[in-house]
Amino acid sequence: MTQIGFFIDVTKCIGCKTCVVACKDKNNLEVGRNFRRVYSFEQGVFPNPSLTHVSLSCNHCDVPTCIPNCPTTAIFKRAEDGAVLIDHDKCVGCRYCEWNCPYDAPQFNEQLGKMTKCDTCFDLRDAGEEPVCVTSCPLRAIEFGPIKELRKKYGNVSEIKGMPSASITKPNLVIKTK
Amino acid sequence: MDEWALFIFTLAVQASIGSTFVLYLFNLRSSELKEDEAYHLFRMPLIVISVLSLLGLAASFSHLGAPMNAFNTIRNIGSSWMSREIVLTGAFIGLTCLTAGLTIVQKKVTPWLMLVTAIVGLIDVYAMGALYATTLVSGWNSINTYTSFFGTTLILGAVLAVSLVAPKFSKETSGINAKGIIRGAFAVAVLGFTIQVVGSAMFFTAVHEVTMIDAVPASSILANYKGMIASGWIASIIGMFLFGYLAVSKSKKTFVSLTFTALAIFVVAQGLSRYVFYVMPG
Ligand code: SF4
Ligand code: SF4
């Protein structure tokens, strides 16, 4: 299995949320349901304040706490690329995974009554393309691919100040910090 | 607070579990009762408890987005506390209905079945606690989740059981040790209250780490609910005094109405505390 993951370049991100909107458009998401979200962290005080934006979706974690807690076994880690997906034939819409994910990745679809989330745009990937967040970012701040390669290129940082500890779920996420 | 379904579900099922347990204790203390007296005393309470637990079950179903997949929820019993809780709750409700049904059909109570039902229920309360305590929600990951649930179970169980049997005193059941029963129930409520006080003290001295993005620590959220938290405790204390009075007083006239007053006060008290519990996810 080649585990996939995301690289987020915090030094480039300006918090414009184009990735959020592109993802909403691709997945037809109504107001309030966002497979990708941009979080902004303010730090420091005058004269050295800083504002950091981090774009996050599901991190397709190595220790996905969502999976053992789901009562229906609907959430699973796909064998071929380690993407964490939800089987809608099983999901009962209990929303328990919302309380068991540090990154707010599971997003409830009211109409379906079931949980939904980032699936790494596997239809686009099957067609040889990149996930839509990657291609939409005007600053090229997001990359997607085998996590080993991303880590080799960009290092091992998976959290910045203000984010939950990466030790909880071991997210497949690399962040380039300032 | 968005979790009204779970609010009703946890309160109703915990009250049912607690009152099954307390009714079993009543039965233990009423060995001098004749079979038909015991039947008259316990029939209605057992029916009310099973109806209440079924109401809780209905509320829990309304929480599900896709209830037709409900049977899937027991698939992950090996690792999901929610699966375990659902199996135990199902077993408790099944046993409660069986106990009530058998009582009606056989015209006598089956104490060992009440005991089994109560034990399954008490294990279920632990599972309910674990379901919340093992999440990443700030404030739930605390011993207070367990103490709060067990406290509710004992307090509501005791006062509900007393309210359900009180109207039967002195009518069909001359041989009953009414005062002994009320004192026993009061002792159970005192235990429940003490557990909640201890758990709450431990909660407010603990540091609540935030393990979810964009979340606020429980302590900052609860700061907005100080009035509600205080009202809950005040109601509990008033309820305990009233319950204590019922346990020692000799007057019979107002007894039944006062037990129902105590029940109402405790429902409000535990309701306020449970409401505050469900605001913690923010
Ligand atoms: S980010 Fe959340 S939903 Fe995605 S795998 Fe990790 S724990 Fe599960
Ligand atoms: S909402 Fe669906 S995927 Fe999430 S825990 Fe419940 S059954 Fe599992």
Automatic annotation (TrEMBL), chain A:
SUPFAM superfamilies: 4Fe-4S ferredoxins. Its cofactor is [4Fe-4S] cluster. Keywords: 4Fe-4S, Electron transport, Iron, Iron-sulfur, Metal-binding, Repeat, Transport. InterPro entries: 4Fe4S_Fe-S-bd, 4Fe4S_Fe_S_CS, DMSO_DmsB, ET_IronSulfur_Cluster-Binding. GO terms for molecular function: 4 iron, 4 sulfur cluster binding; metal ion binding. The keyword Manganese does not apply. NCBIfam families: DMSO_dmsB. Electron transfer subunit of the terminal reductase during anaerobic growth on various sulfoxide and N-oxide compounds. This is DMSO reductase iron-sulfur subunit.
From TrEMBL, chain B:
The chain crosses the membrane at residues 6-26, 46-66, 86-105, 112-134, 146-166, 186-207, 227-248, 255-277. Pfam families: DmsC (PF04976). GO terms for cellular component: dimethyl sulfoxide reductase complex; plasma membrane. It comes from the Bacteria. InterPro entries: DmsC. One of its GO terms (biological process) is anaerobic electron transport chain. Keywords: Membrane, Transmembrane, Transmembrane helix. GO terms for molecular function: dimethyl sulfoxide reductase activity. This is DMSO reductase anchor subunit.
